[in-house]
């Protein structure tokens, strides 16, 4: 079952990466040069996705966002056949994403997995 959940999680991520111009914001290496530039990117991301956080939560989420942005940038530098993007899940950890979104998607689509 773990294998199927992993495949589904990656499939969901891939599906969200197919529409980066609609669901994400563009960024490049210059946006990652300093915490100040990353903060600007984070605020731009929040505006794009209409995300609002209180001060404490915003700082906690910024740390997660930084790691995700750096991971996405490093992955995309590898020149794979698809690209990752900063979508609306950009300040969630993998565990939070799986717990909130992927697991409900898996439950709703189990009948397709069993056939």
From TrEMBL:
Keywords assigned: Signal
Matching SUPFAM superfamilies: Cysteine proteinases (SSF54001)
Domain Cathepsin propeptide inhibitor: from-to ranges: 42-97
Keyword Signal attached: yes
Transmembrane segments: none
Signal sequence, renumbered to the chain: 1-24
Classification via Pfam families: Inhibitor_I29
Protein's UniProt name: Cathepsin propeptide inhibitor domain-containing protein
Organism of origin: Rhynchospora tenuis
Lineage: Eukaryota, Viridiplantae, Streptophyta, Embryophyta, Tracheophyta
């Amino acid at each position: 079952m773990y294998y199927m959940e992993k495949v589904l999680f990656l499939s969901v991520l891939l599906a969200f990466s197919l529409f980066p111009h609609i669901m994400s914001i563009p960024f490049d290496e210059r946006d990652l040069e300093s915490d100040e530039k990353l903060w600007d990117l984070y605020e731009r991301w929040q505006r794009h996705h209409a995300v609002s956080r209180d001060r404490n939560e915003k700082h906690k989420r910024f740390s997660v966002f930084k790691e995700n942005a750096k991971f996405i940038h490093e992955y995309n530098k590898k020149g794979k056949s698809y690209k990752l993007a900063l979508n609306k899940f950009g300040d969630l950890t993998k565990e939070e994403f799986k717990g909130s979104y992927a697991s409900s998607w898996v439950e709703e689509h189990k009948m397709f997995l069993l056939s």
